[in-house]
Amino acid sequence: MSKVQIKVNDNGSLRITGDVELLDGEGNVYTTKPSFSLCRCGLSNNKPFCDGSHKGKFESQVRVPKEE
Questions:
Q1: What span, in angstroms and rounded, lies between the C-alpha atoms of 47 and 44?
Q2: What is the reported pLDDT for 56?
Q3: What pLDDT is recorded for position 6?
Q4: Nearest CA among 62, 63, 6 for reference residue 35
Q5: How many angstroms from the chain centroid is the CA of residue 39?
Q6: 61: how many CB neighbours lie within 10 A of its CB?
Q7: What does pTM read for this prediction?
Q8: What is the pLDDT of residues 21-63, one digit of tens each?
Q9: How many CB atoms lie within 10 A of CB 58?
Q10: What distances in angstroms separate CA 2 from CA 6, 20, 33, 34, 48, one per listed residue?
Q11: Helix, strand, or coil here: 67?
Q12: What secondary structure letter does DSSP report for 36?
């Protein structure tokens, strides 16, 4: 089994790739594809999924801290 990958996109969504189960707060299962994006900006009209509403309105470039 391969690892699930979650990529924090610059100025955008969280891209999820792999076999995962996405649940809401009550444990209900969302229908997903093998690869999908989750909203990180709060502007999507299709939460928790990204619909591209962030473009030009959200800035965030998260990086892994470098070890010394």
A1: 6
A2: 95
A3: 97
A4: 6
A5: 6
A6: 9
A7: 0.89
A8: 999 999 999 999 999 999 999 999 999 999 999 999 999 999 9
A9: 15
A10: 13, 11, 16, 12, 24
A11: coil
A12: E
